[in-house]
Amino acid sequence: MDKAKLDNQLCFEVYRAANQFTKLYTKVLQPFQLTYPQYLVLLVLWDQDEQTSSSIGEKLGLGIGTLNPILQKLLEKGWLTKKPSPTDRRAAILSLTEKAKQEERTIEEKIINTMFCFDYLAQHGPELKQKVHELNEFLGIMNKGEQL
């Protein structure tokens, strides 16, 4: 087996899968004028509203330089509001607007209808998610330089 060949690389398959997810979500989110990264921010806030940008970035694994433009667009488009933190004058609290709260179910339904229109993800989704989670845990350990 030639390990140098692109098609034999696990990292390439993960990369391709990530691109395919992004393309699919881009199509689904287009009517809402949301990008996939913007949707991920909304997911974090739909789980727990009123968070700082550092908390959101931590959950998504995004640095502030990447996250700030995403947050700015969501603020401009009326999905989020921003107010000073009462406990840290350097931080701001980001919250969902009524628009974001009202659209949550509609967006969720559209994604579910798209993703599960065939049985593949219904049958294999939980197992795939678990395996990818395990892979991410492993890679996280490797990136920290810890021994297995």
Task: Please render the helix and strand layout as text.
Blueprint: H1 10-29, H2 36-47, E1 51-52, H3 53-60, H4 64-76, E2 80-84, E3 92-96, H5 98-115, H6 119-144
Antiparallel strand pairs: 1-3, 2-3
Find the structural class using helix and strand composition.
Answer: mainly alpha
Shape descriptor: globular
Largest sheet data: 3 strands, antiparallel
Proportion of beta-strand residues? 5-15%
Radius of gyration: 18 Å
Low-confidence parts lasting 5 or more residues at pLDDT below 50? none
In order across it, which strands form the biggest sheet? Answer: 1-3-2
CATH uppermost class of the largest domain: Mainly Alpha
CATH fold node name of the largest domain: Arc Repressor Mutant, subunit A
Count of distinct strands: 3
Helix content: 55-70%
Number of domains: 2
Number of helices: 6
Describe the structure.
This protein is mainly alpha-helical and 148 residues long. The chain folds into 2 domains: 6-117, Winged helix-like DNA-binding domain superfamily/Winged helix DNA-binding domain (Arc Repressor Mutant, subunit A, Orthogonal Bundle); 119-148. The chain is built from 6 helices and 3 strands, in the order ααβααββαα. Strands 1-3-2 form a 3-stranded antiparallel beta sheet. α3 (53-60) crosses α4 (64-76). The protein is globular, with a radius of gyration of 18 Å.
